[in-house]
């Protein structure tokens, strides 16, 4: 015979949802009447719910001055937590409601750099052509250790792992070259040679948190591969700044703060717009480093996924 569950004292002792909702409305509008109007209830109901909440807590939540009210210190503490909690509940219920409607949602996982420098520029075009598809974008540097509960439908990544239940197709290989702003190049014309770049302000990608993406390509690797067998010291660079945030490095390059290594698929738009330039024609072609489209096997014939896949491929062709 199954035993009854013991009483959950934390749930039993919790104030009522209606009381908390009334409190948040009153704190937001600083007036019980306006709070009542916002919740489509009477002012007396708001007053009663707040009075019960104050009795439960053993302290006043509002300073009452005429028709206006203001939060006490205890009220401010409760409002910060209650407002956020109610907002989280609302957003969760809205997500559930959206999942039950006829509109299709796909979850795409990619790096922050790809999302910020490539995808964001093109999503309006995709949504305009596919209004019935919602796209949920999750960014990470850790493709091999996705958080529990996150199960993307699609990955765009350099990782060639045998993820069970997923298929993959290659999109493009990587090409890397130096970039800077037109203003930086004008102020440092010597940067149109590799020697000049070596002595400039170098904005460098460091490997922290990026080990799962691919082999590291930084300025040390760049000059080693373009030194033609000679030792090329970097100690005489004017300055070196490093970060694992590629978007930060690109923003600094756009602001004229130095030279960065740019991945072609991420910086090509900025070059075409004239916001970045290539000070030298030298480039590093990483034919073995291919970005792939990795997707759930069950989506292989899904019409909405096929629209997204065809759209992505067309943008890389």
Characterise this structure:
The protein is α/β, with parallel strands linked by helices and 317 residues long. The protein has two domains: 91 residues, Winged helix-like DNA-binding domain superfamily/Winged helix DNA-binding domain (Arc Repressor Mutant, subunit A, Orthogonal Bundle); 213 residues, D-Maltodextrin-Binding Protein, domain 2 (3-Layer(aba) Sandwich), CATH 3.40.190.290. 43% of the residues lie in helices and 21% in strands. The chain is built from twelve helices and ten strands. The strands form two sheets. Strands 4-3-5-10-6-9-7-8 form an eight-stranded mixed β-sheet, with helices on both faces. Helix 9 links the parallel strand 7 and strand 8. Helix 2 crosses helix 3 and helix 2 crosses helix 5. It is elongated. The relative contact order is 0.13.
Task: Compose a concise summary of this entry.
By secondary structure, this protein is α/β, with parallel strands linked by helices. 43% of the residues lie in helices and 21% in strands. The model has no long low-confidence stretch (mean pLDDT 84).
Helix coverage percent: 40-55%
In angstroms, what is the radius of gyration?
28 Å
Distance between the termini: 66 Å
The strands making up the biggest β-sheet line up spatially as 4-3-5-10-6-9-7-8
Number of strands: 10
Largest sheet: 8 strands, mixed
**Proper CATH architecture of the largest domain:** 3-Layer(aba) Sandwich
Q: Please indicate the percent range of residues in DSSP E strands (runs of 2 or more).
A: 15-25%
CATH class of the largest domain: Alpha Beta
Mean pLDDT: 84
Write down the domain tally: 2
Protein name: Glycine cleavage system transcriptional activator
Family: Belongs to the LysR transcriptional regulatory family.
GO biological process, one term: DNA-templated transcription
GO molecular function: DNA-binding transcription factor activity; sequence-specific DNA binding
